[in-house]
Structures are given as C-alpha cells and as structure tokens.
Queue: 3 jobs
Job 1
Amino acid sequence: MSSRPTARRTSSRSRRMRVLYHRDQLRHRPRFEWVSGKRVEHFERSSRPGRILTALERCHRFEITPPKKPLPMAELERTHTPELVRFLRRACGQIREGTYYPNVFPKRYSLTAPAEGLARAGFYCLDAGTPLTRWSYDAARLAAACAVEGAQLLLDGRESEVYALSRPPGHHAEADLFGGYCYFNNAALAANRLRAAGRVAIVDIDFHHGNGTQAIFWKDPDVLFVSIHGRPEDFYPYFSGYAGETGEGRGKGTTLNLPMPAGVDDAAYRRQIERRVVPALQAFAPRSLIVSAGFDTWLGDPVGEFDLTTPFYAELGDRFARLGLPTLVVQEGGYQVSQLGENVRTFLEGFLDARGDSTPRRMK
Ligand SMILES: [Zn+2]
C-alpha cells in the first residue's frame, strides 16, 4: 500500500475515533414505501442514528461532533448535476407537510430537465421507495457535510480514521438521480474531496450494489470502486452490480463487482475479502480508503439476505484498519434497528483495536 503502518504504538483501548453527525439529519422522516405493490412502514427509519449513537456513547471511545459548516452547493455540484441539486432544494421547499412519492418516471433521454415542480420529481428519481419531505434536502445535505468534513480531517492530517454517521444514506444516488433511500452520494462526495491527495479506493460492504457510486466513477481511473453485494439477478437495484461491469474508457478496470447469493456466511464473505478485495486494493495502491459501510448484511436484517454475525464485523473492521490507510467510514444501510448500533460499534471498535497496534501515516 502507498502509506505503510509505522512503528508508533499506542494502547489499543485508549484510541478514540472522531464521529460526525448532526441531529437535524433526523428531520427527514419517510413514513412508508411500496414493496412489490404493498404499502409497508419505511425501512430507513429516523430511529436508526439514535441506536448507533447510544451504542457508541456507551463505550467512551468516540468523539461525536456536528459538521462545522453546511456543505456549499458548489461542493454538491462537483459530484451531482446542478439540475438535481437545485431541483431537490426547490421541490422539498414546496412541501409543507407529509411525504411526496414520485409516480411518473419518464423515459428521460428525450426530455428537458425540469427545474421545479413536485409532479416532475420522477425525472430525477429511480424508484418508488425514496420520497421527498420538507426536510429531505436539508437532511441529505447535512449527511453529505459529515462525509466531506470527515474527508477534510483526513486530508489535513488531523485524523487517520473518521466515521461519518451520514443519514440518509448515499450509495444509490447517481450524479443526476436520487433513489434507494439516498439523495446525495456521501461517499462519492468525500472521494472527490480526498482525491486532491491522490488515488482513492471505495469499498462498499452494504448488502446492495452501490450503483450510484459506480456510475459516478465509471470512467474515472483515479477512484477504485469495489462492491460485495447480493446478486442483482435477485436483489435491488437489479439493473447494476453484475460481475462483468468493470468500468469504461480510462476507468476500465477500476470497478470490481463481487455479487454473491443469499445466505452468505462469515467464512464465505471472509474468502471474498482476502482473495479479491485486499489484492485489488493492494494493486491499486490508493492514498486513502472510504468504506461504504452498510449493515444490512447482518443475519437478522429485514431487507438484506446475507447471514453475517455481529462478531464478524469486528474482524472486518480489523482487516480494513490493517491496510494502513487514512480511512473514512461512511454509514450506508442496515435496517434491523434493534441491532444496528451494536453492529456499527463492533465494526468501529474492531477497526480501532487494530489501529492501536500500528498507526498509519497521516495525509499531512
Ligand atoms: Zn443496502
């Protein structure tokens, strides 16, 4: 790897991690969604961050602070199209109460992008599970601010690992589309900040394929995107995440998709990490790492269908930490709310414990 661990040693249990989170991210409250024609309670509940915070606060190894400033629109527009950013701002500002579900999805390529109008939101949306509320834009912008500020802390050399509790999540949002509970792509925004210091690798361990992140960096030779996810033949987002998708043009070879069937256990997942993910990262030699961390791979998750156990997340965190790279962990999915906090804490503590033995060189 480009930045190898140094010999500096610290006590592993005293090592702390910066966490970025703003409570106004909770104001976005989607209430329900449609799954196979049925109206169900929305899985991306506003109770998710609270469970994570409670678990982190209990072990006193995390320093939780809000992002210092709002993310400028210009920063959002480095990753997303100005049309999407402005449309979301205006459309959410139009909503007084309740939730709005786009229900007209045009075949868009022959149309002019609409500047406003809730009825036209389907132009920018890829599914029927991602409603707009009065607070969706503001909450998504704060979630993005957590990820970008985390990236900046790495760039400044002030931290060598940061956890962005970004909610709503981001990895399904493309440059000009929201969907999959995601509005802005937090990991992609962070990668576009981190690339100032050199190549960036993104490893997406959410159960679902990170179609948005893949699309944003599809032709980009400087950002590696690696994703382990449920087979798209069977699982959302269905239209991307196949093994044959490897990038295009100068970005050919910097996308790696590892689709797996339902029922994957710790051992099978470990094999993919060791045989495919770690070698790909070592070959790419990035300057920094982003982990798109979804926990819907847990065995009891109501959405994902892998069978990973809670202790295994400590091993995963340990493995990523031992790559010796400045690392930003960005929250993605994970929908069994009662276990989500423990799974996140276990992952981050596994990471911290490994870092306690070998501190990576900071970016500055
Ligand atoms: Zn997911």
Job 2
Amino acid sequence: MGERFYPDRFLKQVMPKSFYTQGLVSKNFSLQKGAISAMNRARLATGRPIDKTVYDVLLQYKAKYKDLIAAEDFGKAQAFEAAVGGENLLRQRIEQAVVFDKIQDLKAKHKGEFYRWMPSSAENPDPQHGLLYGKIFRVGEGDKEGNMPGERYGCQCGIEWLGEEEVLMYSSQEKAFLGHISQNITIKTDALYENAIKHNFQNNNLTVNFGKLPSKTVRKIEKQTGESLKGFVFKMDGESVFHALSGHGEYKEIESGQVVIDKKRLRLIPHIVWKFDRVSLENKKNGMRRLKFQKKIGHHFTEIVTIGKKKKHLLFKTFYGKQ
Ligand SMILES: [Zn+2]
C-alpha cells in the first residue's frame, strides 16, 4: 500500500489552531497578519503569490459591507460582522489554495509515477468523482478536466501514491521473458512506440513487418483453430499500437487488476504470437476473422490479431493484460 494524501488530514496537520479561532479579515478588508503567516507556513513553499480566489472573497466581503452601509440598515461594526459572516467562505478558499499548492509540490515530486484515486471525505462528495474511486492514473492526469484529487475547488478526494514500480510490477517470469527478446524485435516495437507517442492518430501510417510465422507456430495454430497460415507474416501498425496504449496503457485510467501496457511490454506482442499458450478463432459478423492469443507470463496477456487472407498476414489489433 502506497503513502496516502487526504486534503482534510493535511489541513489538520498544517493549519495552526489560531487559523480557526482568530479573525482573518482586517477592518480595511485585507488579510490579518496572522492569516497570512498561517497561510505561508502551511504552504511551505515561500514566495508563492496568494491565490486570486482568496482576494476575490475579500472583495466580495467589501462589496457587501458597502451595500449594507449604503442601505443604512447597519452601523459600521454591525455591517462588518454581517459582511464577513463567520469568515467561512474565506477559510475554505484559503484551505483550498493551501491544498492546491501542496498538490503541485507533490506532482513535481511524483512526476512520472502513478496514483490511485481515493474516496472523498466530503459530506456531499461529487458523484462524478465517485466514479473514479480506486482507479489508477498517471500523475498529472485525473478527472475529465485533468484535475487530480484536491485540485478542483471543494474536492476532498484523496490520493494513494503508487510509484512506477508498483503499477508496472514486472513479474520475475516477465523479466526473464523480456530478457530473451531479440534486439531485432526490440528495435521494431520501440519504433512503433515512439511513433504512437509522437503522432497519435495523425499521419500514423507506420507499418512494421515482423516476418514469417515459424513453422512450429503455424502447426500449433492449425491444430487449435483449423486455420492454415503457412507463409503468413505478422505485422503491426502505428494506429493499433496507439489504441493498445491508450485503451490499456499509459494515457488513461486503469481499472484495478489491469496491467499497464508500456514500451517494454509492447516487445511481448510478436513473441506472444510466436509462443502463445492458447489460441482461438473469432468469426466477426462482417466476415472478418480474428485470432485471440493468450499467454501467461506472470500476468494473463491477451492479444487479438486480424487474419488477412489475401495479403497473407496477421495484423495486430489489440493487446491487454490482467493480473
Ligand atoms: Zn473529488
């Protein structure tokens, strides 16, 4: 289990008690010295400008005060009390700014790693965020707007830091298997990876040929599916690789138990066709035929390829793994 961060627990740790007991607003609608020093202490990083939303609240208080004075319903002292109320809004804004800054620091510290979205401690949690509980993201990614827990106003969702190791978790079998993959295959799949990262869907027309299926593989496929693939080659194209990476890989939320497809794991793809445990034939409605290869290398990997009879090729479609 990774280290966790919860906005409410963090605030309890860092905000001085006086922040909740003393007044925060001075008579001229600026922040009291005590409030500023509490903020700076909590924010750790000195020299960061105070969040604009905090000043917006002060302006809001001031406008309300002026209205009350203009309406002549209140004396100055009364109007001030009524305008700032319990200072709750200001406290919330300051807390939010403190949490936001802390998350920016943590993002820098955990750059390139993964985290799990943890449930909110709010009384009325956002149902949209509720859908993200337990899911794994790369640091810097998160909800639809790209917010991580605690970044959006009012969000009290938590973070469990997972590091890179913990999510990628190469099993010992997988490490051994990867160690035996030829340089020739590595160069080709790495090129597909770089291409997918660079082009996404635009002009992504790289196709790589991995050569003829070994005769042993051809015999094994025929035995298990009845498909005769003598002389067939195996190919992968950039767009399918991008799909595999974006659906199950480094760009998107990861369901629990799902394996992250990264650059190294792409190298398994040709080898799984060569040395699968099981294969089955899938007939699609449009007459297309596909093979589903399965292999256990620590995790349970599944790979789908399309059979192209005319061109005598197997074309890579997608790839995923489960723990
Ligand atoms: Zn939230």
Job 3
Amino acid sequence: MRNKKKKFYTSGLFILGAVFLAVCFIYIIRLVNMQITGVNKYISLNTKTYSRYETVQAVRGEIYDRNGKPLITNEYTNTVQLSYNSLKNYTSTGKNGVIAQLSFVLEDYYGDFTTHFPVTGTYPHVSYNEEALENSVTKNRFKSFLKTNGLDEDISCVDLFEWLIDYYGLKNKNGAYIYEGRTQYDVIAVRYELDTMNFSSDNPFIVKEEAPLKLVTAILERASTGIYIEKEWKRVYNYPGLASHILGRVGKIPADEIEKYLEMGYKYDAIVGIDGAEHAFEELLKGTEGQVKITEDEYGGIISTETVVEPVPGRNVYLTIDIDLQRAAEEQLKANIDKIVNNATDDMTGKLADSGAISAVDPNTGQVYALASYPSFDLTTFTEDYSKLVNDEKRPLFNRALFGNYAPGSTFKLGVSAAALTCGVMTGGSSVECIGVYKYYNDYQPHCWYRYGHGDVDLKKALGVSCNCYYYDVGRRLGIEAMNEYCTTLGLGQYTGIELAESNGVLAGPVYYSEKNLGVWMPGDTLQAAIGQNTNAVTPLQLSMYISTIINSGTRYKATVLYKTETFSGADVQYNQTEILGEAELSDEHTLLIKQGMKLSQEGTSTLRKYKFPIGSKTGTAQTSKQNNNAVFTAFAPYDNPEIVVSCVIENGAAGRNAATSVAGVISYRFGLDENGVKLPEETEAPETEAVVTKKPTATKPPVTEEVNTPVEDTEEITVPDGEHGEDIEPPENEDSPPENEEDDLDSA
Ligand SMILES: [Zn+2]
C-alpha cells in the first residue's frame, strides 16, 4: 500500500508577483525540508515570478509495542514526476526540452519511461507494439487519440510517427530533426502519454517510483525544471502478518467520512487511519500540517521555497500490546485449531473448528496485552490480497476478538455466582441438589449436562463441575432483572471502553427481547440465561475484562491499548492513565469463593490436568445456531496474585476444554513455563511487561497453592467426567428432548 504525501505541486493559490531581477546569476534551490525537493534552475533577466502557498503534510507518528518494539514505521521514497503545474506554461518546444533532458539522465541511470505509447523501435524503423495493444487501456487510448486528431485507423506506423514528429514540433525551422533515435522516441512517447492520460495537477506523470538515490542526484545535477522529485512515505509493517486487526491500515479518506474529515480541516486527498490503531489514534499520529511559500518563474521552475509554518510530525504511539505475547497467542490459536480438527472424529467433536480469538489483558489496569483473531491477514500484502480476503468465507478481515459475539456458555456462571452471593440468594454454604434435571417448573424441565446428577452442590463445586441445575435454581431465585442489573456492573452487555471499534455483546433478557421483537420472555428463558445461553453474547475481550472485574472484587477497569505517546523525536512522554469504569458490589470474601471455584474448575479440566502453574479458570461450551458447539475458556494467573487474564473462543471447537490449550499456551509463554506449566530454565524468562501506571505486581510469584477445601467425593466427580463437558445446550423450545451432546459427554467420560 502506498501512502502518498500531500502532493506538493497541486492546485494552490497562485499569488502573482512581479519580481524583476537585475542581474543574471545562478540560483541554487535548496531542499527546504524532507517533503520538498527543488531542482537547479538558471534564472535569466526580467523573469516574471509567481508565488503560491502549499500545505506540507506532517510526518505520521510511528507505532510501537509496550516494550518499544517498532510495529509500524515510515519508509521514505523519492518519486520522480512531471508536474502539470509546471509544464502547463511551457511552449511545445519547452516541454520537449524537459523530456529530452530527462531522457538523457534516464538513459545513463535508469532506463526507459513507462508509457502507453503502442510503438516500438526508433524512427524510421518503427512498428506497432501488437502485444501492448492487446491491453484494453492502451488500445482504447490509442483509438481515441487517432479519432480526436482525425487520423485514419489504418495509418501505418511510420506515417503516424512522422505525423507525431510534426505534431509535437520536433523539427527546427530548416526542417531538421531536433532529436533523433531514442531521445526522439522518448519525447514523442511521453508527449503522447501526457495527451492521453488525463494529465492534470492531481494526476502527474510518474517517471519513476522509489527512485534510487543515484538517479535523484543525477536529476538534481543535470535535469531542467518541470521535473519534480516528490518525497513520499509509506507505512512499513515490521511484523508482517502479526496483530493486523489491531494495527489497521491507512489510506484515502473513505467516501462516507469525507465530510467529517473536511470539517476537521483535512484535505480531500489526505491519508488517514482507516481502521485499527491507525484509526483510533489518528489525532495523535497525524501531526500538524505546515505551509511553504513557493516562488516560480513563468515556466514553473522553482526559484525559491520558504517555509512559512514548520510541519509538526505526529506523535509516536506505544500500544499496550506485547508483540511477543501477541505472536504466541496467534500461534497458539492456529496450532490449537489444527490440533482440534486433527483429533476430531466428526463435526460434533471439532472437525469444523476453523476460527477463533484470544484476548489477554492485565486485570490490574485494563491494559490489553494481546488480541488474536484467526484467520488473519497480512497488512504488507493487503492490497494484493484484498479480493481474496473479502471473498474468503472464513472472514479473515473480521476481528473476532472485538466483534465476535459468542454465547459465553458456562463462563457466564461466574457472573451469576457473584450476583447470587451479593444479592444474598446464595451463600458459600448453601447447596442445591442436582438430580440431572431441574424440575421446579412442570412445563419446562431442563437437564444438567451430567444426566446422573451432581448430588448436593454448593457454589464452589457448582463452578468446579459446572453444574447446570445449581445455576437454574440461582437464576430462578435471582430473577432476570436482578441478574442482569448485577451483570451489567460487571461489564456484560457493555462496551469495554477499548479505543478500537468493538461490539458490546448482549445480555439476554426481556429488554433485549422487546428491542429485537423476539417475543415474550418466559421463566424458562431465565434458566437458560443463567447458564450463559439464550441470547447472551460476549466478545473475547469483554470476557477477559469481565473476569478481571470479578477477580478485582468488582473494580471494573476500562480496557485500553494505549500505553504511552511521545513526540516523533522521543520527547514529552505521556503515559495513558488507568481508568475505572465502575465498581460492582462484590466482597473480597465472595471473590475468594468464586476464585476457589475457578481453581476447582481448572483441576477438573482434562486438558489442564497436568498443568502445574496455579491458575483459576472456567470452561464454557456454547451452543451455536449451527448445532456445533463453540469452545470457550477463560483463566487468570497466577492464582494468588493475578497478572493476566486470558480468554479464548474457538468456533465449532466442540468443548470448552479444547480452548483451554490455547489459553494455557499463552499463560506459559507469559511466565516462561513449559506446556505443563513448569518453569523453564532462566534463558527463556518471560519478556518484560511491566506496566507503569499500575498497581500490578512486578514479578512472577512462585506458585502458591491456596487451600481449597475440597471434599473427596467432589474431587472424584470433578475428575470423572470432565467438568467442562457440554452444558445443557438445549433451547427452551426443545425441552422434551435430551441434551444433544449428552451422550458425547458420557462417552468421553
Ligand atoms: Zn448438575
């Protein structure tokens, strides 16, 4: 993708000046700043001059990760071009002279012009380039040129060339050729190109993009006016293919946003952030335009350039992202999806797993460490890949971490637990008997995923084994209004506050039903909502932020990807301040109960059974409309002093435990652990991720196992079968049929 700087020689305000120079002298134009390059110019006596003012776009700020690793930087290139504003005042002979001089330079340093002139050879040995004429643009332009000039379609190439020699004034008074051979050809080819290309102030003739310095120097030394060397910048992606959704693109202002940008003082052809961080931090990155006064002679040759207002480069933006952790997350996600597919026996066990997302945040600040969305794309080849990307049914351009609305499944039970404890509906000691089916209502009796029943279940055990009946009962006793009122304070159904565009998820309930005309909310709907089904939906980031709020005893931080900013040269560093969005009512005692339940849940998750690092976690197996289940998993670590919360959703991933592998992989990377959660030797220490604004612990604490009072029978039941196996996924309308994935659960038990 090429990001063109504001074209320097475009339509501008011409201020007519009548400056007469008294003596003949050589005036050397100096480069006044990075954007503007003039060429040497001989000024003769009594030359009329014209002055105009042009805006100079500021250099765009660069983007780094939290540890200062450069993610997006700028690369400057020189583009040699013929400028309309300059050439328009030239006589035909003058124009020819400019092109001829350029032709000499190019011959020595670069080669040919690229034009649509469909002739090869040099006069008189010229012939039509039949291959070039197969191109419709070349052909149409040629036909139109012949017609406009009253030339016969069947004109021979030699006749045409002779006509062009006359037409472009390439003979002197005596009828002799002014130029011959290659130079003559070049002049004709370029004049033809200018005549047929819609050459204008907005559409200069590009002689050479990314011109080598040698060529630029040669032009500056030898060529005439009318040739301009424009300094351009383009974005360089230093980690191709990584964090693409987060970083985003720059480009021309989208049509539907033109008005907004014009009001903000942008020019029509400005380059702006289109999406991702480039868009979110546009204000910081863009800098302030400068202004330059250009004085030209009557042929458009630059006599002087004077900076009236210096452009101020944009600020560099440091994201909270840790690019190494981001890489680990993206790799873990892909590898795990491949593994699920390979291990699956059919669609219901993960054969269709093909996409997913991971979010990793600092629960103590709301800073986002990583947001992976799979499949993804590569910003360096975005333009080339575009049509393939938009037509890919797996939607690689879709940022699942921020826009994927997924049923939270049993991860929702954590919020319902907090609601139940805070509202006094349950205490840590009160229990519900699970007989495998919830029989409170006569006309709606949903099952627990474990059809034999979990027996007496208290809160910790309910979380550990993910008992549905416990939460049906809690949901019924809370009622949907109280449940939703409380869950809202945890951030469910709410925007996380991240600077990037995001979805706010859905809190299932009568309000949403009436908004979407989904019918009347029934008591059975409340039971399904209480286990994270019905229309409940979270984004992977929202899931991590909500878990953060719970383990923070209710303090809800605003999610952020902005770590700090600085001037382009690295001065005036400003750190982004941690913000609190709200406080959910949640005591430390209740927080501890939920965390203990999450510890039991980890121990009951088959894919984490060997994992030694102390974490708290929760699986979710969420029903999708496709009748395949999404795998949902969330965890915080270390258990005693959480430094990171990681959540993962894998579409069609079958069971929550399948997403656990990805999450464990990210945690292992963060703390320098092997796949079993055991500390690796020193040299693979986790990367520095210390935050500045935080109350975050600065070092990885050694594993501290909290005493979890687990009765023997709980442990047995937690480990056989897997606690994360399918929750009751039946929708209320299917109440008479058994849960569809129940047999699968028991088979694998
Ligand atoms: Zn149960």
